[in-house]
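2 proteins. here.
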Amino acid sequence: MLARIETANRDYANVARIPVPARSVSALANAFALMGAQMRYRQNSEIYGEAEPCEYLYEVVSGAVRTSKLLSDGRRLIDAFHLPGDIFGIESGDEHSFTAEAVADAKVRMVKLSALRGMAERDSDLAADLRKCVTAKLRATQDHMVLLGRKTAEERVAVFLLGMATISRTGGPVELPMSRQDIADYLGLTIETVSRTLTQLRNRSAIELPTARRITLCDRAALQRLDA
């Protein structure tokens, strides 16, 4: 996982400053494979709730997961999207700060935190992996704050698309597991603003929109200039 974290961090730094999820490799991946219990979650079903005790660490096996919370005015804030290989459920305290839900049907592997900590006391590689996960989570939170606080709607959408393209690594169309409402709640925009911005980018030939969930990045340089 650590190699993937470091590679992803370099790619994001060069391509798009979108939050980098913690990803599993090496000792941590081995721990999940050895001790993890795999669960299936249907679309929009809850994996854990805000303020619930933080007892497990989770890895996305397939599908996608979002972490979110409802604000006092009723709006939803999505903190992050977690895709296959991503680790989530990392907290600074004893309770979850966000609710985790399956964006689409998902398989998730979960490991008891107490068991991981016990193993990390005897395995320096695992301890290092866990520390790097915490660092990646902190960096992602900081990047998300910058994204919401300092960028225009067009810049936010461009950063998001470049980030998703970096994650997919296919070089072809980007398949989005999340809805436009999910994207809007992640970027701090309305769904109308997201749709209008995507249309503007398409009209400038920066992207193509074969379907609502599939986007082709035709002019990455133009999108990168928006994130300059």
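next one coming up
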Amino acid sequence: MNFLESIQMAGKTLLVNKLRSALTMLGITIGNGSVIAMIGIGEGGQKFIANQLNSLGSNIVFVIPGNEETQRVSRDVTRTLVLEDAKAITTQVPTIAVTTAELNSRQVVTYKNRNTDVSIIGTTPSFLTVRDFEVATGRFLTDIDMKRSNQVVVLGAKLKEKLFGNTNPVSQQIRIKNASFQVIGVLTNKGSNLGVDYDGSALVPILTSANRLVGKTSPYGLEVTYIVASAKNADSVDAAEFQITNLLRQRHKLVGEDDFTIRTQKDALQAVSQISSALTTMLVAIAGISLFVGGIGIMNIMLVSVTERTQEIGLRKAIGATQQDILLQFIIEAVIVSVIGSLVGTTVGISCILLVSALTPLEASISIVSITIAVGISGGLGLFFGVVPARRAAQLDPIVALRSA
């Protein structure tokens, strides 16, 4: 019997027991589809997080109060950064193009009978440049607003919709912590960045925030939540980190450990990439278990098939079929089941990826490499788990097989 005849006979045998063949394929289908979907969704998650970090602005350097030890011990970190530190970084660090500072708090914002608790971000006019934001309507904060501590506010896109709906809010008055503020602009839709939802926030001059809303001061100047600086180019980030560290240590007259922490986009991307890769690997491993279970299911069903087809095997051997012919037929049946199951699983996995991309912000991608590997593993599992039943069938004694029938 040649190879083509073995394939034809294996196909006919599988069609005779359609339901059993379909159920055997189901385990491979679920496992294969899960692996492809998990890899695609995992890659989409990595891209989404990378885009979120990149949307913070280019070549960003974050300066955060407190060192890593104090941040681990206490959530309430002492304010060690002041506005003058941000100004000094701008003027004295040659690798930095522009710097901004933020003083954040949560306050109740009221417009007519609508009120909501939002994040109030006290910042400087350079915020737009550093954080790569754009104004959709009106204008942004200016140096005059800063110097005069004007009670003006720029709304995030989501907050504008919540308070004003389709009405133009520019020149309208809102109340923040019982103080009246004039709306001067609305930012474009940006999305949240590292847990801060700027679309749902309100931005005011940092001096106004300190004087009217927060009321906290440091003996060394206007304390800030953190400083954000933009390096002149990507190659300058490491140098900027080194220069900022030296400058702040001199300004703070430090002898021992730093009282601040510097983070860059590269650090954040590396950390997030490691975490998301680990999560994706874990999910793929879990999905791979179901693929392995599907392979065991193939072996189980094939062993049952050998038992049921004892008479057929004995008859074929009696009329001249060799052990190799019997072995080949059963292996081909197992491989066909696994390959068809893997192809159906590939379709299911790709459909899940497309569905996730359509319904969520994740840019889930279809990886040709993952599909090839998953299909290859599925075929390999069919071959591997089909060997034991096939060898058992091939080794049956024809006389014993015919008698047992």
